[in-house]
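Ticket #4471: complex job returned nothing on first submit. Input attached below:
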Amino acid sequence: MPINYYIFLSLALFAIGIVGVLTRRNAIIIFMCIELMLNAVNLLLVAFSKMHHLQLSGSNAVAGSEGQLFVFFIMVVAAAEVSVGLAIIVMLYRNVHSVDVNFLNRLKH
Amino acid sequence: MENVLQIVYWIPLLPLIGFLINGLGRNYLSKGLTSIIGSGTILAAFAMSIWVFLHVKEGGGYVAHYFDFISVGKLVIPFEFKVDELSSLFLLIITGVGFLIHLYSTAYMHEEKPAHFARYFSYLNLFVFSMLLLVMGANFVIMFIGWEGVGLCSYLLIGYWFKNQEYNKAANKAFIMNRIGDLAFLIAIFWIISKLNTVSYDEVFTAASLAKFSATDLTAITLLLFVGATGKSAQIPLYTWLPDAMAGPTPVSALIHAATMVTAGIYMIARSNLLYSMAPFTMNLVAIIGLATALLAATIAMKQNDIKKVLAYSTVSQLGFMFLALGTGAYVAAVFHVMTHAFFKALLFLGSGSVIHAMGGDQDIRNMGGLSGKLKITFITFLIGCIAIAGIPPFSGFFSKDAILLSAYIKSPIFYGIALFTALLTAFYMFRLFFVSFTGTFRGTEEQKHHLHESPWAMTLPLIILAVLSIIGGFVGVPEVISHGGDKLTAFLSPVIPVHEGHEVSASTEYMLMGLSTGLVLVMIIAAWFIYRKYSAKENTGLAKVLEHKWYVDEFYEAIIVKPLHKLGGFLNNVIERSVVDGLVNGVGKAVNYGSRQLRLLQSGQVGSYVLLMVLSMVLIFVLQFFLRK
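Support reply: We reran it on our side without changes. The output follows.
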């Protein structure tokens, strides 16, 4: 498959993620949109990695593997982030009985 | 071997030490100790000056190098003292007369509190130090340091009684007038540096004699130096500070405004005589300004009623004579007159101080009269001073004034006529002063009459010494026609001031001129005797009133310089300062305040808005980069 398809798909996923983050007020949905953006990036990385591997496998057996490695890193970081983020949301819900981010403006004061 | 004159630095250093001790210890030292330190350092400097003078007389001058004062690129200004015939003579005058005035001050200022007494002596010492620096410096920059120093000290001493606002104004006037002249002096120094890269007298004069200067440069430099001299030596148009400077204690008037500070300008021009001789235009201007000042000040002195004001205008007038001498090329005559003038004018000022002391602070001659009975020594010495300044042979003033009149005669009979007229006025107003205050009947209050007394020895001793000097001081410069080889001063100064041959007048002419001036002076004295021996105060009218008000020169300056300056200052303060400068400063503050108030709204605490801004900014950056990339 041409690389263009992957690019457009990940662009679409990323745009959906941004719009979700900007428009939704529910913290959990915002969270999921962030994950969506991360995964859009992951998809792109894997796609390019594969493309490079196909082009350069004759001369270099490990060509394009950096992209795959990056995806693993991103997954690990995302997992850590999710655990912290969900914990924050749980604490938030315990305190204000809501997960609406518009209530979260107390840091201003 | 090192020259023994290397130690001349002690001469200015001693008064400086005296200044430091008296100035720093003024709250702890007793008056007696202060007097001893103040006068003792000057006496020691005087003793050293005599030694230096004798040395120079034997073996010529010497330039003592100590260190490099300024060293920038190719320009090196060394800190050097030059002791030669001219400066050693000035050293004698400054420290000698200075010491007598210090001695006199110990008695005159005795009623001051110890702290102020010490302050006074520290200023006096600093003044002598600056003056010594001025005459000893071997280049124009060192001279300028001393030049500024005497300006500062005159300010401090004129404003010594700083609680009186009028005195402070007089001090300011002296300082500001001097500054105007100083600026010209400074520009002249810069001019010399830009042309020659040196300021040492020797190098500058050598360069000048090798025609390294163009005629324009020479004229400009000498003119600027002369403007500096008019400020310090009180010549038209910068003379009005000197009469006002009488606000200081009387010994200060004697020290600053008779014997030393005002002679700085004469010294500078005499020192630069090589430059001046090559700039005929400046010479003529110097002569004309000197003559005009002499005449103007003499006419003003005719009608002043303050004993010190008369003497002050007489000083201005005598300084005018000295500048006339300089302008006509008679540098030696000018230096000679500086010397004799230092004697008799210091004598007259100190004598007037003695009178004021006796009168309990009253300076108005209309309240005096008949003082001869009570103040015998002051009376006799004051009379000697008057005779000396009037120029009756064989008193010192006669010889120096005669030398000046002669050089004026050689230059032009018109100069001679005006100078002679001024000399006659001098005799007239001095004897008016003398007769009004010392003869007739006492016109003051009963209390003052009771208070009249002769001053203590510390005041009369300097008077007597100065009187003796006023009598015999002229014998160092007896004209050739009277006694061959009598003009020792010219011979002594010849290494510094070359003797110009030619312009000789016949012996008979010279005798005639002397006879004429002496005869007319005697006539003027007798006239003064008839008019003023029975003086009674009356209102002045007509010309006399104009003279009493000093030709309204102060009012004129006030109208054309001071008032417009005040207006300009007011305008700058109200418009430029308030609107522009303050507006700018306050505007910056207000803008920052307003801007931050608006920017604060961005921190809404809404996570959504932050993210939106972030995304928009990133998009903006991408778009910009897309379009800006080639």
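Residues 53 and 62 of chain A are 7 Å apart (CA to CA). Closing as resolved unless it happens again.
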